[in-house]
Specification:
single chain, mainly alpha, Arc Repressor Mutant, subunit A, two-stranded antiparallel ribbon, 6 helices, 66% helix, WH-like_DNA-bd_sf, HTH_MarR-typ, MarR family transcriptional regulator, MarR/SlyA-like
Length: 155
């Protein structure tokens, strides 16, 4: 029987994680310096901004793949900074909806151009076709893993 070996740097899940961490560190550093936001706080703001009627913390966790403690801590911090507002959830009394305050909307409007500029900077050495293919591959990986998780979940 032949022993299998694994070279970490050639293992695609590791490479994806490594690159994701590099990108996240770059983005986090930029947001921290410019806006005093951690990456989890920025993600919460972005999801809330995309949800004009409000969004639950649970929905934020599902959309961002952040755990509920991370989402909760980010939300508490943003509420304390008056960037988010919490209001009752008419359809579910056990949860609440988060919306951007006027200050949160202003901050989001200030961040978006910088976020898009940072994205352009990171991917500036790739053609539009390469970026589109990369995006399509990431979405394929997402779909495969989400499908596998759904099939593995107990009924």
């Amino acid at each position: 029987m032949t022993k299998q070996s694994l070279r970490l740097d050639d293992f695609l899940p590791y490479r994806l994680s490594f690159t994701t961490n590099l990108v996240s560190e770059t983005v986090a550093s930029a947001y921290e310096q410019a806006f005093g936001l951690r990456i989890a706080e920025w993600r919460v703001i972005a999801v809330v901004a995309e949800s004009p009627g409000g969004v639950t913390q649970q929905a934020i966790g599902l959309k961002t793949r952040m755990d509920k403690v991370t989402v909760s801590r980010a939300a508490v911090s943003l509420i304390a900074r008056a960037l988010l507002e919490r209001r009752p959830h008419d359809a579910d009394q056990r949860s609440h909806l988060l919306t951007l305050s006027a200050e949160g909307e202003a901050l989001y409007s200030a961040i978006v151009p910088k976020a898009l500029a940072l994205e352009r900077q990171i991917f500036s050495r790739f053609s539009a076709a390469e970026i589109a293919r990369f995006d399509a591959m990431l979405r394929q990986i997402d779909a495969i893993l989400l499908e596998d998780a759904a099939q593995a979940a107990p009924s």
